[in-house]
Design goal:
about 90 residues, mainly alpha, 3 helices, elongated, Antitoxin ParD, toxin-antitoxin system, ParD
Length: about 90
């Protein structure tokens, strides 16, 4: 179902949209606006999904085991030493 809506756009946006129609990339100004809104919807949904995944990861990590500062330093030093040894340093 289509809904008619009145929107205001800048002169620059109007020129760009009309050029896309004139070049045959889109059938009408409405098609240009619809495509722009669809891309914005997809981008917004992707960002929302990424944010939800990050929040879930933070919750999961927050419920896991923690390493003490000293143990973390020891593990980091061991990792660096192993990497150096791997490169013959």
């Amino acid at each position: 179902m289509s809904v008619k809506a009145s929107v205001s756009i800048s002169d620059q946006q109007d020129s760009f949209a009309r050029r896309l129609v004139e070049e045959g990339r889109y059938a009408s100004l409405s098609a240009v606006v619809q495509r722009g809104l669809e891309l914005l919807r997809q981008e917004t949904e992707l960002k929302d999904a990424e944010l939800a995944a990050l929040r879930d990861l933070l919750v999961e990590r927050g419920q896991g085991d923690f390493v003490s500062v000293e143990d973390g330093k020891d593990r980091t030093a061991a990792m660096i030493a192993a990497k150096k040894a791997g490169y013959g340093l």
